[in-house]
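Structure tokens please, single chain.
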Amino acid sequence: MRLKFLWPGKTRSPEIKGLQEFYASRIGALAPVEIVETREARGIDERQAGRIKELEAGGLEKHLEGVYIICLTDEGATMTSREFSDFLRGRADGAGKPLAFVVGGFLGLADRILERADLRLSLSRMTFSHELSRVVLLEQVYRALTIIRGRHYAK
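Here you go.
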């Protein structure tokens, strides 16, 4: 199973960046992993949300060919950690396409990216910052991989 994580912009918080690197390293010990930070729309007034999301979508789209696309959105399906591990196990046994987890910027994802999703996934009914969502996603992928491999992971 090959895993790709895509999001616009770099993680600015050093604490969150440290956690992101920690979990990416742990995942990398269990499966090939790639984190792609695409171009972030900067210098545009937040009132132009559609324009910001469209600009960021352009950078994300370049990395979505030949992958199974999982978009994070608050309107997506929710799963327990065990259900998520079962889902990943099923995808690993599937067509062999890399899994691409797509996290939007602070305004979310453009509709055209969401429409391409093979799965829309919600991490919680609560709202998290886009940077924190990255870490929560990475932690849950790591947890799922440890469940799949039968390894102990703190509950």
